[in-house]
Every structure is written in structure tokens, then in C-alpha cells.
Here is the input.
Amino acid sequence: MKVAIIMGSKSDWPVVQKAANLLTDFGVEIEKRIISAHSTPVQAEEFAKNAEANGIDVIIAAAGKAAHLAGVLAAGTPLPVIGIPMKSSTMDGLDSLLSVVQMPKGVPVATVAIDGAENAALLAIQMMGLKYPELRQAMKDYKKKMEEDIVKLDEEFQEE
Here is the structure.
């Protein structure tokens, strides 16, 4: 069980680290890299082409502004790619969101919210749950605990 987390810049790490932490909590191995669709396109192509052979199950790609990283990786691999549009100084990340979500036919990228690292990790876990029953069960347990926490919070709130 392995997820690659690819960032366009090291400045993305404080947000993307939340995905890495959550994946680690679920027992998923991570490989983290800084690869730019624009500055290192050859490395992006090579990474995508070899990801499956390197044991990766899902790729999470985080980039801001033009945010082409997820699409470039998706073009070169049969693996699922989840794009995290990063909030940037330009348009508060709307430009990134539109870049990641507007993929051409035949090159799908699952897209989460701007800076939505935790949901990217959870979506990767759900995808891998199709192959790994222990992850599917861990996700069921996670959702059950989330429900229990909200019910408890509601009960405490009603008592105030």
C-alpha cells in the first residue's frame, strides 16, 4: 500500500503534510517528491511512467497557480491521480482549482478542495480499499468514529 505525494514546490509541504500524516496513520507507505510540471517536465514524465512498477497505488499531486502537475502525471500513468489545487497569492487558489478540475477527455484527475490535503488522503485510502480489505475496514472504522464524535459533541452541546 503506497501513495506518492508529489508537490510542485517545497512551499506546498505545510498543507500537503496533513495528507502524509493521515496516510501514515492508516499504515500507508508514502513517497514524497518535489517535481514541477514546468521546471522538471522530464522528471514528471519519468515518474509517472514508472510509478506503477515502483509499487505506487495512487498519486496525489499538489500544485498552485497554473497547477498542471496532476494532469501531466495523469497523462503518463494508468494509476488514479488526485489533484490538490493549492491556494496561491493569485485568486486565492481559484486559478489552481480551475486548472486541476478542467482536464481533457481521457485524462481524468480526481480533484479535492483548495488545500484539501486531508480529503485527498481519505480519497486515496478509499480507492486503495478496493484492493486492500484492511484499508476498507480502517476507513469504515474512521467514519464510525467520526460519527460517534459528532454525536458526542451534539450531546454535550445540548447540555450547555
Q: What stands out?
A: Residues 2-132 form a domain with the Rossmann fold fold (CATH 3.40.50.1970). The radius of gyration is 17 Å. The chain has one domain: 2-132. The mean pLDDT is 95.
